[in-house]
Every structure is written in structure tokens, then in C-alpha cells.
């Protein structure tokens, strides 16, 4: 099955090279070179993935990401950046990017990340179909998968794409213990060594948003020496 990919990149050589390799994995590629055109094409929808450079003429990639994530439909976003600052990478993830690569990057790694995002979306769609998108309620925490929304004590909580996916993955399997490697494979779609810190940082940020006391969490619990699990008591799913 062909996948539709939008590349928003002002460096035509990079865009062309990425497009060639994506076509090799059966992707239908569309490329634009400025932020305004990228935002217009992204808003038109119908893409299975957006590869988005941060530094663009017109509107930068971070603003495009923010506006795309304000829409109800969900499209994975892989950000490309020449910036090495961790602040820039974290900001992209906070705005809803699913993954990022820093230039210069390996084309093989980019293709691997793209494949991982496709696998992740397929798994989510399959899980959503099996579960009927049933809301999950646990004490003061409510998750609505179809709306990708979370409420704590009735108040909406803003989560990044990966924070939401991570929380939903835990909440759908209460009590099950996951290693960091298993979470990387299931939520991020890849399990490369050295990326375990990504799981730790996301869990810390997720706890800071949903837990009343992140130092003594009641939802996402640490299993020392193994990994993490979601609490079991009071869990219920309502159709």
C-alpha cells in the first residue's frame, strides 16, 4: 500500500534525496520549499506523514507543527532541524512532533524512522479498532482516545503526541510491567540502544502533567530494576 508523504524542506537537494529514498519504500511523495506552501498542503490533509524542516522561509516548522496539531485529524510529523540545541528539539516535541532528526542525518536512519512511524500508526489504528475507542477512566484521570484528549479532575491536560501515546499504552494494559526497551518499540516504533533516556524524560514530563504529586505517582508507577507499569486499582473502560 502506497503512503502519502509531504516533505516541507527549503533545501532542494535534501528534499530530492529524501524523496528518492521514500519512493523506494513505496511512498507517494509531495515536496514544497517554503512554510506558507507547507502549511497549506498540510491543512489540505490526506497525508500519512509530514517531514518538516524547522528553518523555513515564510513560516517556520515549529509554527506549522503547532497549527497542524490544533486540528482534529492526526498526521505523524517527523521534524528535521539544523539546530543542535536541546531546547529546540524539546519545543518541537512539546508542540506535537512525533520524532526528529538533527542535520546532518543518515538517510538510512531517516527511512528507518519513517518506517517506525508507519508501523506505530498501524498498531494504534488496529488497537483503536479493537477497543472501539472506548474512553478510559481511572479515578480522577479520563482518557478519550478518539479525541486524543485527557482530563485530570475535570480539567483538560495538554500532552504532546508521544506523551499521549505513552499514557494510552499504559492505561490500556493496567498492571503490566514494561521495560524501557519494550516501550520504545511499542510507542516509538524503534528500540535502538541508547534511547532509553527518551522514555525516562517522557515519563517524567507526563507525571508532571497528570500526577498531583509527581514524586509519589498514583498512575504511572516505577518497578525498580525493571521498568514501569500503570496502576491496577479502580481502572474501568466505558463504552
Characterize the largest beta sheet: strand count, sense, and whether it forms a barrel: 5 strands, parallel
Poorly predicted runs are 235-239
Span from first to last CA? 32 Å
Strand content: 15-25%
Q: How many beta-strand elements?
A: 13
CATH domain class of the largest domain = Alpha Beta
CATH level-3 fold name of the largest domain? Rossmann fold
Walk me through the structure.
With about 240 residues, the chain is α/β, with parallel strands linked by helices. The protein has two domains: about 120 residues, 3-Layer(aba) Sandwich (Rossmann fold); about 110 residues, Arc Repressor Mutant, subunit A (Orthogonal Bundle), CATH 1.10.10.10. Helix content is about 40%, strand content about 25%. The strands form three sheets. Strands 2-1-3-4-5 form a five-stranded parallel β-sheet, sandwiched between helices. Strands 9-8-7-6-13 form a five-stranded antiparallel β-sheet, with helices on one face. It has a three-stranded antiparallel β-sheet with strand order 10-12-11. Helix 4 links the parallel strand 4 and strand 5. The longest helix has 25 residues. It is globular and about 55 Å long.
Amino acid at each position: 500500500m502506497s503512503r502519502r508523504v509531504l516533505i516541507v524542506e527549503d533545501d532542494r537537494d535534501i528534499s530530492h534525496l529524501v524523496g528518492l529514498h521514500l519512493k523506494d519504500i513505496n511512498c507517494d511523495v509531495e515536496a514544497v520549499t517554503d512554510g506558507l506552501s507547507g502549511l497549506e498542503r498540510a491543512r489540505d490533509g490526506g497525508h500519512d506523514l509530514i517531514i518538516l524542516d524547522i528553518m523555513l522561509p515564510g513560516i517556520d516548522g515549529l509554527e506549522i507543527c503547532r497549527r497542524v496539531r490544533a486540528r482534529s485529524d492526526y498526521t505523524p510529523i517527523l521534524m528535521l532541524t539544523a539546530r543542535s540545541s536541546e531546547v529546540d528539539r524539546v519545543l518541537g516535541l512539546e508542540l506535537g512532533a512525533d520524532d526528529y532528526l538533527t542535520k546532518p542525518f543518515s538517510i538510512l536512519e531517516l527511512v528507518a524512522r519513517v518506517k517506525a512511524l508507519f508501523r506505530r500508526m498501524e498498531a494504534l489504528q488496529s488497537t483503536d479498532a479493537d477497543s472501539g475507542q472506548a474512553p478510559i477512566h481511572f479515578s480522577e484521570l479520563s482518557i478519550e482516545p478518539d479525541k486524543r484528549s485527557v482530563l485530570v479532575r475535570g480539567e483538560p491536560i495538554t500532552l504532546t503526541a508521544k506523551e499521549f501515546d505513552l499514557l494510552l499504552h499504559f492505561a490500556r494494559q493496567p498492571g503490566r510491567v514494561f521495560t524501557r526497551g519494550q516501550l520504545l518499540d511499542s510507542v516509538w516504533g524503534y528500540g535502538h540502544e541508547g534511547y532509553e533516556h527518551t522514555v525516562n524524560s517522557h515519563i517524567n514530563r507526563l507525571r508532571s502533567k497528570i500526577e498531583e504529586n509527581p514524586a509519589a505517582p498514583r498512575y504511572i508507577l516505577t518497578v525498580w530494576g525493571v521498568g514501569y507499569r500503570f496502576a491496577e486499582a479502580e481502572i474501568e473502560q466505558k463504552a
